[in-house]
């Protein structure tokens, strides 16, 4: 930890107040391009975390009864404030996370889309009615909020993923505890400030910071009813098992190994551009990053052009103009990515393009690794089995579309996949036969818009319902079914009915 009183501290948000933590444990928030310490983030005390949950529990008593139109209007105001502060949010995000300024704006914007969706909650949180299901009997459902919900978010999308979570939870009538990544919490806190400015009442949104102790408290606390998580498979599995064992709802979006298949009839230049952007954008630090390309048949001759396309990408600090690939998040991440590149070469893959130690002279202390391409990759290799989370692309080959589909289906992960082709028949076959939750046809990163839901599958997801969209309304609400009959005042009473049927 850097000992300097001039370094700002990240606050906690408890019961509508941004408060200084009383903890003795702090972590530096570091600019990954310069190693500058931007702020210090507290690992909240157990007392502080319990106070946040208590505030949320108390606020739920009134928030759950707030008219749905009043809730919606808060998010109309919130989306306006996010738009007005887009440049500032992107600048904070780039400083602490490293991605380019245009990509940082994209991060904020994809979250903003969910805020806009939350503003339409009046059309989303609708029950059903069946009139006269028996003599004078109606049955209907209402979708009621659960109570205190919580979200645990990762470093790679510090704006988008928190905005996937708390707006929809709060719009549906719940209160929320958010634990952002301790590596880059500053843009999340600015979003929290704007949420309070938009009119979210005290206690409805609370933010805590910390590591394993904070995650465990969220999983264990009896007053938290649901947990949403995005992050690694290891942590996500622990969160899901621990939260559900404590009777909570849980949704965990986890690791991935996303593949794209390229058929020879695909539009050549458009496909190459898409592959390079999806593989190396955000320095490969996306759970939807394209990390494997399967070249089919004659498309295998495209490899030299793909390598040349990757060579044209500019590695630099995210604040610099025309940067394509910024730094990875930390020195530890750089060491891990570099180690996996070395291991790939040791295990027999051909290192076609080595992105280690790029020349970024103005930022000599930055955590930079450039676009890296391996060919001759096999499923047994570590660079294929593990999620590298860096700008590393594995190129594989297949003789046919069927062989390529079988290769992808054999991988345990199921976050996203894509096919590049001009053939409708091939696209139809692919989307029917592929066992992956999110499919792109000539779209390399098929993340759905918020009117749908994020539907990663298999080892990439635990829990039935995904974040945002229609599914998350179900996740954050409990369906209550009411069956009712009203008698006329002058109705003559009938005989006693001892059967289960309604007459």
Automatic annotation (TrEMBL):
Acetylation among keywords: no
Keywords carried by this UniProt record: NAD, Oxidoreductase
Signal sequence segment: none
Location of the Aldehyde dehydrogenase domain: 18-482
Enzyme Commission (EC) number: 1.2.1.27
Molecular function in Gene Ontology: oxidoreductase activity
EC class name: oxidoreductase
Top-rank lineage group of the source organism: Bacteria
CDD domains according to UniProt: ALDH_F6_MMSDH
Metal-binding is among the record's keywords: no
Family to which this protein belongs: Belongs to the aldehyde dehydrogenase family.
Record PANTHER family: MALONATE-SEMIALDEHYDE DEHYDROGENASE (PTHR43866), METHYLMALONATE-SEMIALDEHYDE DEHYDROGENASE [ACYLATING], MITOCHONDRIAL (PTHR43866:SF3)
This protein's name: methylmalonate-semialdehyde dehydrogenase (CoA acylating)
Record lineage: Bacteria, Pseudomonadati, Pseudomonadota, Gammaproteobacteria, Pseudomonadales
